[in-house]
Structure formats: structure tokens, C-alpha cells
């Protein structure tokens, strides 16, 4: 138990420190690498919470895909190494506003969660009393069926939240089509192959006489 | 005392995994050099030891005592970190590979995803190595290699998903046990071919 708490403090301290370094470091590449470290520590925290599936998805999606693209763009664009300190103070008000808003939301969530956790603890204790008084044996269902993370998420996602799932997939599809449509810029002054027309040609249409006065 | 024993257990298990792995890799390089030499009608390494069998150890010793070169314009921390990261990630995947019944270092419930995540992290070692040396050619090579590694990930993921659907679990031990009747590469032969090309 104490080892878990030690790990929790380790991960959270490292995450906070590297998040701070992400904002303050002069070199943008270092910023991205610190951001990757933040993702790592957050994945560690998620594993401590017991949601290893989400932690692995976090690693695959954010660290494996998004941050790699960040790194690509940062390395290939020649970003200025350091900005002047006045630029940092210019963004201070809006940053402060956003962080206070975020803190407020977090407090809302924490309060709701704590209440529900209290309820759960109460119900569990009642259940324990029931068990010890009426059902002497252990609960056989728990000992037989131990669903993994993936099972639970799948069984909820594809039944109760199927509409949200489909909606999310449609949003992703729209984003993909949008990205393709942005790059699909056909210039009219460039000669290009039209495969359909090339395949449609036959002997009758291929050769024809031109009326030309010499 | 118990903590000491636990740590000793973990260290011994890891060593029992890593040392044979590294020795196997060393001798596979020797095999590769021998095969390549015979293809080009040469003898290959045959001086050190019997049939050159001690050549990998000599190579390792040479690499250990070589002088470390740090380019003066390189980003030193990342330059040193990049190969360490690559080596660490290459070894980390072996932690979830089952070698037999209960012969696995960590029996993760999300073993396949773990392997996938670690292999997608391998890009970082390559790309930071290319960038930190502060040379355009090294950086271009790193970009090419990284783009290749990233691009095949999607197809590998989709193919592995089919195997997961057949096995009904993300646990590698469970997947191995699900192939008790028949290897999956026989009913999923087209996928096997595609995976072979992608990997």
C-alpha cells in the first residue's frame, strides 16, 4: 500500500516538474520532449488507478502518434530558439484566466466524485454486513467473473453509449475528409493523365482526319 | 528484508531474461556475417576462437573500450540519451513475451497493447538521435527512418486486431493458449502475409 502511495507521489511530482519545464524551457524541442515525459507520468498514474487499458491507449495515441508529429513539425520548421520575456507577460492574463477556469472545473468534478465515492463506500459496507450476517460464504460471482478493463469498457461502450461512439467516429471521419479536401487542389493549367479517358479510347476515335489547307 | 527479497527476485528474473537475449543477439550477428560471407564466397570471421565463435565477444569488448565521440555542436544530453532510449525500449518489449506456461516476466492484461505502445515509442530514439547530432544528413536519415516506422504501424495494428478478435483477449499468454488447436497463421494466412510484409 505504501509503495503505491510512493509511486503516486513520484509520478505526480515528475509530471508537475516536467509540465513546468515544458512551459519554461527555451528550446521548443526540449519542450516537446518534456511534454512526452508528462504523458509518460500520466500513464503511470492511470496504471496506478487500475485503468491499464486507458494508460496504454494514452501511450499509443498521445506519445506514439501526436507527440511524434509535434516533434516532426518542430524539428522541420525553424522555430526561434527563445522569445523575449515581454512576450511571455503579454499572454499572462489569458493564461491566468484559463487556468483559473480549469481549476474551477476540476474542483467541481472532485466534489461530485467524492460524494459518489462516499455513497459507494456506504453501500459496500452495508453489503459487507449483509454478507457476514446472512451469506456466510464469499460472493461467488466476484470470485468467478473478474472482467478486465477492456471487457468492461467494451460492454458499456457498445451498448449504452453506442450513439456517442458512432458520433465520435463520424466526427473523426469528417476531420479525415476535411484534411483530404484541403489538399485536393486541382490546378487546371497542368496536363495530367485521365485514366478513364485513356481506357475508353478505341480504334474509331483514335485516328481522325483534320481538314487543313496547305 | 521482504523488500530486499522482492527486489532480488525482480533483478534475477530480469537478468535471466536479458543475458540470454543479448548473447543470442550477438551470435545471430555472427551467423549473419557468416551467411553473408558465404554468399560472397568469403570465409567470414574465423580468427578469434574456434570457427570465429568468440568474435561477438571480441566485438563487444572493442565497442566497450572505444573512445566516446561527442560532436562539439551536438545537443549533448539528447545525444547521449537517444541510444539509451532505443536500447531500453528494444529490451522492454521482451518483458511481456511468454516463453512457456507461467514463464513470463509480467503477465499483463493488455500485453499486446503494451508491445504496440513500446514499439511506437521506438521512433523517439531514432528521431532524437538524428536531430541532436546537429547535422542535416543525420537528420534527414532519421526522418526517413521515422516516417517508415510510423507508416507501417497502422497496418500492423489492424492486422493484430483481427488476431485479438479471434483470441478474445489482449493477454499474450491467453493468445498463445488460444492457438492450442491450430496456429493462427494457417486460418489467417492472408493476414500473415500482410503482417510479414509490414513488419
From TrEMBL, chain A:
The chain crosses the membrane at residues 6-25, 32-51, 57-79, 91-110, 160-184. It comes from the Eukaryota. It is found in: Mitochondrion membrane. Keywords: Electron transport, Membrane, Mitochondrion, NAD, Respiratory chain, Translocase, Transmembrane, Transmembrane helix, Transport, Ubiquinone. InterPro entries: NADH_UbQ/plastoQ_OxRdtase_su6, Nuo/plastoQ_OxRdtase_6_NuoJ. Its main location: mitochondrion. Its EC number is 7.1.1.2. It holds the Pfam family Oxidored_q3. One of its GO terms (cellular component) is mitochondrial membrane. It is a multi-pass membrane protein. GO terms for molecular function: NADH dehydrogenase (ubiquinone) activity. It catalyses: a ubiquinone + NADH + 5 H(+)(in) = a ubiquinol + NAD(+) + 4 H(+)(out). Core subunit of the mitochondrial membrane respiratory chain NADH dehydrogenase (Complex I) which catalyzes electron transfer from NADH through the respiratory chain, using ubiquinone as an electron acceptor. Essential for the catalytic activity and assembly of complex I. Belongs to the complex I subunit 6 family. This is NADH-ubiquinone oxidoreductase chain 6. It comes from Teleaulax amphioxeia.
